[in-house]
Amino acid sequence: MTESQRPSGEYPMYPSYGNGDAAYPPPPAHQPAQPISTGPGTTVWPGNGGADGHGGGGYGGFGQGLPQPAPQPSRHGRRAKRPVALLAAVAIAAAVVGGVTATAVGQFTGTGSSGTDSSSVVSGTTVSQSSTGTVAGVAKAVSPTIVEIGATSTAGESTGSGVIITSDGEIVTNNHVIAGASSIKVTLSTGRTYTAKVVGTDADKDLALIELEGASGLKTATLGDSSGIKVGDQVVAIGSPEGLTGTVTSGIVSALNRDVTVAKDSEGGQGQGQQGGGSDWPFEFGGQQFNGDTGNSTTTYKAIQTDASLNPGNSGGALINMNGETIGINSAMYSASSSGGSSSSGAGSVGLGFAIPVNTLKADLDTLRAGNSS
User: Fold this and answer.
1) Catalytic one of 315, 335, 338, 349
2) Is pTM, for the whole model, over 0.70?
3) N or C: where does the chain have the smaller number of CB atoms within 10 Å of the terminal CB?
4) Active-site residue flag, 176
């Protein structure tokens, strides 16, 4: 064993910084700088020395300022951050798609802000979309709402037509069809018959409301708007001329606002196809009487003129537009053969028919339902 020949105290002694009691180099005069992170997995130690005052992190405590590996975060922690970010992105995307989807669903189902108002739908029989604008389509849709009316009075029996307006059997017709009747029988398009009673009449407008006894679930007509019709519009008439139930004819609106005068009661011989003869469907226009004597009690109204073929028995039936809406109640016709007082057997349509505008009927419905008679 060798001993140092160096005199004691020749060199200063330092605290241990490495192996042995007098390791070299001496400690720094100030606290070493803290590590600087430069990126994931790498840490740079500026200058020499250790971070804890006991060595530089190299062998024997020699800190050379070389990059040192930084403590690695746990793999679980690193994986946890990615799903959170992914979930956030998915949530944002879902919110955007969900908003678009909700808007689309709202538009298709009517639950969105642009939903349609169902109150605009009109109840009653309508023509199918594929048949709109055709006479066949109108006839198929509306015929079940037109009835034949047989009225018995002291003057005899007469035949007219009517329009069903409620499912429990309210029917509109002309006043002159049921005036003075002691009994009324109604036949549906199916052939089923009912007894009817008079609810209300308005002789001044030649309108009447009757009701079937014990009826329910009937098809009803759609009452249109007669203010919108124009000369030249195509129309269809349905009724029971001469007792031929469900007869369909067609034509156009020939004129508007014709002043037509008809008898208020049956005294003028207004039997619609009477079995015992007599004059048919008398009316007055332009100061002249047609189809017989209108009698002393008459009323005048503004009528729609049509060239759709009308005959005795069509009275009280419907004049219909090509959408299947009732725009008038057929009420009078001109027949050249009977204007000179000949029998009804020679009467026939020559393309001059008249109908009460449906707006006149709609304005009068409350009065008729109240049971008022005039």
Assistant:
1) 315
2) no
3) N
4) yes
